[in-house]
Amino acid sequence: MAWALAAHEVLAETAGGYGHFVTVNELAERVQEMSGVHTDAPTRTWMDAILRKVARRCHSAGEPPLPALCVKQNHKVSDSYKYVLELAALPVPADLELHAAYARWQCYVAFGADVPADFGIPPLTPKVAATRRATTFVPVPEAKPEPVRAPVCSQCFIQLPANGVCEYC
After folding, report:
1. Fewest CB within 10 angstroms: 26, 71, 77, 119, which?
2. Radius of gyration for the chain, computed over Cα atoms and rounded to the nearest angstrom
């Protein structure tokens, strides 16, 4: 329980800065420091349970989903974020990262971050945004096909008629 309380506090603090987020490993370190309870167990074996507890607390309190602020090393949301959707009885969207970006935006607003007034789409995490820029389809102009040359007579080099027989030779 101490870890879940510490995780909520760290995530709420993180939400105070627009565009801020925390990785799972960073959150695990801060949670252990704040709670004074340490473990040698790999983070992947216990952090999901902590994020689920935070998600339940946020859902019960009517807060935005703070677990959206916690991402893996590749800056994508973890499977714990799907639990947030499950709690809200929402389907898993086709673009989970964009959905999480909107959820992070809700967290920033709720926890007092200085949110730009003219925002369009909330920012994706840097690595996700870079990956999307790199894989964005840029249409290549269609190459014009080379004109097909009509067959010519091998003797007089005049274009052959459709039957292929030279009328001059």
Report:
1. 119
2. 29
- CA distances 134 to 97, 123, 137, Å, are 16, 16, 9
What tokens does 154 get?
């091998």
What is the helix (H) or strand (E) element at residue 70, kind and residue range?
A: strand 70-71
The candidate with the shortest Cα–Cα distance to 74, out of 25, 118, 112, is 25
Rounded CA gap, 142 and 20, in Å? 42
Classified as helix, coil or strand, 22 is: strand
Q: What is the pLDDT of residue 139?
A: 62
**Number of helices (H), then strands (E), in the chain:** 6, 2
pTM of the model: 0.75
Burial group, residue 7, by CB count within 10 angstroms (0-12, 13-18, 19+): buried
Residue-wise pLDDT tens digits, 103-134? 999 999 999 988 888 767 788 899 998 888 87
d(CA 135, CA 129): 10
pLDDT of residue 110: 94
- Please check whether residue 34 is in contact with residue 1, taking contact to mean a CB–CB distance below 8 angstroms: no
Closest by CA position to 21, among listed 100, 99, 79, 93: 100
